[in-house]
Amino acid sequence: MSAVEIRDLHKRFGSVNAVNGLSFDVAPGRVTGFLGPNGAGKSTTLRALLGLIRPTAGTATFGGRRYEDLDRPSTRVGAVLEDASFHPGRSARNHLRVLAVTGEHPMGRVEEVLAAVGLTDAADRRVKGYSMGMRQRLAIAAALLGDPEVLILDEPTNGLDPPGISWMRRMLREQAANGRAVLVSSHLLAEVAQSVDDVVIIAGGEMRGRGTLTEVLGGDEGAVTEVRAQDPERLVSALEQHGHQLERDGDKLLVLGTDPADVGAIALEAEVALSLLAPRTRSLETAFFALTGGEA
Amino acid sequence: MSPLLRGELLKLRTTRTFVTLVGVTVLLSLVVVGLTAILADHFGKTDVRQLFTFDFSSLFILLLGVTAMAGEWRHRTITSSVLAAPARARLLAAKLVSYAVAGTLLSLIVTVALMALGTVILSARGETTLGATDLADILWRNLVAAALLGAFGVCVGGIVRNQIVAIVGLLVFAFALEPALLSLVPDVGRFGPTVGAPSGISGVNAGGDNSADLLAPGIAVLVLCGWVMLGFGVTAWMLRRRDLV
């Protein structure tokens, strides 16, 4: 079962259709990037998923249950929202203590998550003195407090410096490696490309593309392998014998509908030396603009 | 005690606002009561009763309740509060109860302190003092009024949401409109939430000259409970309907 299921989600604000018939899943153990230009409906979708706004129609559930119907929701779902806010006069440790008490988590978890995000030394300072990066780390600590199965992050790299972005990227991968389902929205495409397994692209509140990163980057052509051989004619012959379709691109061959492992095996069998063997992909930025109609 | 309520009480204790408020309220109440006990002459029993109901805890907890709930919107912490407790009416109820508890504690500290100070000064001056029964009677009235006004403040903050507008509006209402109403139209004013009903609970007419205009204490408690329930209903309805974008 998917960790997150969004089905035919609609949200209308007055005359504006913020989300229009969105459906997708988020799988455990994977990082799913949720991409779209500003105003695409990403935050609205995530907030509907978290029960903060009421959908006009459709459902957004965790294992079939709405957020507000979950028992002790912080043990199932951790969320970092774009405008994560804290009482400026409260320290980070006390902020987490309040959440631990409310969520019925052991107080020991407070120290664990403070250590996990590197805030132990600053934990007794009032939050109003925190930098943006420290606030993001505190928001993540709060999300991790209940050791949840699902993490929802809305533009988590906003305002972070390069070390902070790098830390965030590692953190996302670690969470997925630990079996958590991670759904992260971002407009930083290069950042997402390095962190995610799956991609959901929306624009104008509607789905524009989804799948694994490779599938989305591959566009409509499916898998394409670029290969350059010392003896191209011999390789062409071998590939055609295996029924592959080929195109030429300068001194390279494009093998349609297959991946580098298959092409490499055929080249080895034909005893052809290769100087290039790689999947051909669009950049995520190219795919993004193609799918969103350049609305970014 | 529910985790939600414990969380709300911990919120109260982990900012400087509440500690500062307790200090200011105790100090202000002691100064006013102390000076009055020192400077005024010929205290009768009624005067002493009035003196000991003159604690600022009801006003301050009312304002603190407003500040706390409106502050959830001002600091945009309402989102994380609702994420932690998605049942919004329960969240509101926990906050309401926590400020009722805080009001009770604040009033207990202030009332006991001013009773001790006032009694010491009046005894030293050979003026009338109150026995334990009268002191207990004043104490329960002060505690109940502070508890209900703390809860009512949360409701006002939840309805108005803008912290400044809520506080200024409430001060104007409590210090100008409602006293005027109680004085001019006591049959209506005595049912008011910030002066009329609390005056009925304390038995001291804060907005008029005649304590005969006030509700009986038991009725006044019920009326103020009604205001709190009405405020809770309206705030819960608004909170449930509102999209947190």
Structural overview:
The complex is a heterodimer of chains A (296) and B (245). Helix content of chain A is 33%, strand content 28%. Chain A is elongated, with a radius of gyration of 23 Å. In chain A, the strands form three sheets. Chain A has a six-stranded mixed sheet with strand order 5-6-7-3-8-9, with helices on both faces. In chain A, strands 11-12-10-13 form a four-stranded antiparallel sheet, with helices on one face. In chain A, strands 2-1-4 form a three-stranded antiparallel sheet, covered by helices on one side. Chain A has helices at residues 42-49, 92-103, 108-116, 132-144, 162-177, 189-193, 213-218, 232-241, 260-269, 284-292; strands at residues 4-13, 16-26, 31-35, 57-62, 77-80, 150-154, 181-186, 198-203, 206-212, 224-229, 245-249, 252-256, 274-279. By secondary structure, chain A is of the alpha/beta class. Chain A contains ten helices and 13 strands. In chain A, 44% of the residues are buried. Chain B is an all-alpha fold. Chain B is built from eleven helices and no strands. In chain B, α4 runs antiparallel to α6 (88-124). The longest helix of chain B has 37 residues, at 88-124.
In short:
The complex is a heterodimer of chains A (296) and B (245). Chain A has 296 residues and is α/β, with parallel strands linked by helices.
Describe the secondary-structure layout:
The complex is a heterodimer of chains A (296) and B (245).
Chain A (H helix, E strand, L loop, with lengths): L3 E10 L2 E11 L4 E5 L6 H8 L7 E6 L14 E4 L11 H12 L4 H9 L15 H13 L5 E5 L7 H16 L3 E6 L2 H5 L4 E6 L2 E7 H6 L5 E6 L2 H10 L3 E5 L2 E5 L3 H10 L4 E6 L4 H9 L4
Helix pairs in contact in A: 2-3, 3-4
Chain B lengths: L2 H11 L2 H24 L5 H8 L4 H18 L3 H7 L3 H37 L7 H29 L2 H22 L1 H4 L6 H7 L14 H25 L4
Helix pairs in contact in B: 1-6, 2-4, 2-6, 4-6, 4-7, 4-8, 6-7, 6-11, 7-11, 10-11
Structural class of chain B: mainly alpha
Mean pLDDT score of chain B, rounded?
91
The helix content of chain A is 25-40%
Please tell me how large the radius of gyration of chain A is. Answer: 23 Å
Beta-strand residue fraction of chain B: under 5%
